[in-house]
């Protein structure tokens, strides 16, 4: 098995470290900056004897090295700084992404593509249109991260183990995301049975703002530990064909009443990538929120 990660910055390099420690695939890390992926790859490889993993880690500036990848993860691009919206990254990141897609088509045309670069849903849409790959082979990491944040905040609030929580956040990876308390459970108990609406609303507001909250602390960039964890969880589901269901940004073709857009919905992941979209029964209010989120993604799409 082989996974290539494009972009060796905070998200890319941390994802490579986590992937290496998982010990299930050789990893190529690539960046436009000379020396950066080579140095980080060497550093990670030299942790292998200490941590006990045994996969090859290659750092490169040459796309020939990504040949025959099972999965290519795109993290190349700029990250936001305080005061910026994810959409402010679009102009720069779209041209980077399309260049990366051209190189994937040339050097690893059979690969599954996981996009991470922001604004996530617009970048995923552009990647699908540009590559013309089957929609199961191009999808974005977003909802698993947002659900992880929701779950972490719930666990803190009720003082329980994060392991007992299954959270569900749909919609675009931005301010319009749609956390679903009714589909979020603690040991099988739906959240609204455990918490007052005001408490849930407060946690939802913090979940929606979680990326910006971290940008506000870091000042120089955005989150990467939880994002890389989500990348690796989805990668593992594909490589091991586990059929894990998590929310992710996929191309919708009528599901949830939406067409020709990428948006976060529950997806089953296996060896063919995004193998199946799960259609949840939503209340009218939830459906309106999802469609409003789609509208804000469409505004980004109209700019490409
Ligand atoms: N989908 C999600 O949930 C998340 C998305 N992100 C996004 O991921 C992206 C990366 O974030 P970070 O790693 O923190 O940024 P970073 O600035 O630490 O790393 C980005 C890397 O991309 C490289 N790069 C730029 N242009 C390139 C090109 N043409 N080819 C190859 N490499 C290129 C840069 O040299 C840099 O090393 C950002 O757009 C950020 O907004 C970050 C966290 C979560
Ligand atoms: O906030 C950002 O810009 C990075 C990101 O998408 C996240 O951490 O959710």
Q: What is the count of DSSP helices, taking H or I runs of 4+ residues?
A: 10
What's the CATH superfamily of the largest domain, by name? Lactate dehydrogenase/glycoside hydrolase, family 4, C-terminal
> How many domains, in number, for the residues?
2
At the fold tier of CATH, the topology name of the largest domain is L-2-Hydroxyisocaproate Dehydrogenase, Chain A, domain 2
Task: Outline the biggest β-sheet.
Answer: 6 strands, parallel
Low-confidence stretches: none
What would you call the structural class? alpha/beta
What's the level 1 CATH class of the largest domain?
Alpha Beta
Short note summarizing the structure:
It is built from ten helices and 14 strands. With 304 residues, it is of the alpha/beta class. NAD(+) binds at residues 7-12, 31, 93, 116-118.
Task: Describe what you observe in this structure.
The protein is an alpha/beta fold and about 300 residues long. Helix content is about 40%, strand content about 20%. It is built from 10 helices and 14 strands. It has a 6-stranded parallel beta sheet, with helices on both faces. A 3-stranded antiparallel beta sheet has the order 7-10-11, covered by helices on one side. Strands 12-13-14 form a 3-stranded antiparallel beta sheet. Helix 1 runs parallel beside helix 2 (about 35-45) and helix 4 runs parallel beside helix 5 (about 120-130). The chain is globular. It starts with a strand and ends with a helix. The site of oxaloacetate ion has 13 residues, from helix 8. One of its GO terms (biological process) is tricarboxylic acid cycle. This is Malate dehydrogenase. InterPro entries: L-lactate/malate_DH, Lactate/malate_DH_C, Lactate/malate_DH_N, Lactate_DH/Glyco_Ohase_4_C, Malate_DH_type3, NAD(P)-bd_dom_sf.
């Amino acid at each position: 098995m082989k996974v290539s990660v494009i972009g060796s910055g905070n998200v890319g390099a941390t994802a490579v470290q986590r992937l290496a420690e998982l010990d299930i695939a050789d990893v190529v890390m690539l960046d436009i900056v000379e020396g950066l992926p080579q140095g980080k790859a060497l550093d990670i490889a030299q942790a292998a004897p200490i941590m006990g993993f045994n996969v090859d880690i290659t750092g490169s500036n040459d796309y020939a090295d990504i040949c025959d990848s099972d999965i290519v993860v795109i993290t190349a691009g700029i990250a936001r700084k305080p005061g910026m919206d994810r959409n402010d990254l679009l102009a720069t990141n779209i041209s980077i992404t399309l260049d990366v897609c051209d190189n994937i088509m040339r050097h690893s045309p059979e690969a599954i593509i996981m996009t991470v670069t922001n604004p996530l849903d617009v970048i995923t849409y552009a990647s699908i249109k540009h590559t013309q790959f089957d929609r199961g082979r191009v999808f974005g990491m977003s909802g698993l991260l947002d659900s992880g944040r929701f779950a972490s905040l719930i666990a803190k609030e009720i003082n329980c183990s994060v392991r007992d929580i299954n959270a569900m956040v749909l919609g675009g990876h931005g301010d319009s995301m749609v956390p679903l308390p009714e589909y979020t459970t603690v040991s099988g108990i739906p959240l609204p049975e455990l918490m007052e609406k005001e408490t849930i609303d407060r946690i939802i507001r913090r979940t929606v703002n979680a990326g910006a909250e971290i940008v506000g602390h870091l000042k120089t960039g955005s989150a990467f530990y939880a994002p890389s964890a989500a990348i690796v969880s989805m990668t593992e589901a594909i490589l091991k064909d586990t059929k894990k269901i998590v929310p992710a940004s996929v191309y919708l073709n009528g599901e949830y009443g939406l067409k020709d857009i990428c948006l976060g919905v529950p997806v089953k992941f296996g060896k063919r990538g995004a193998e199946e979209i799960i259609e949840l029964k939503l209340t009218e209010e939830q459906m309106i929120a999802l469609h409003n989120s789609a509208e804000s993604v469409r505004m980004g799409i109209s700019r490409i």
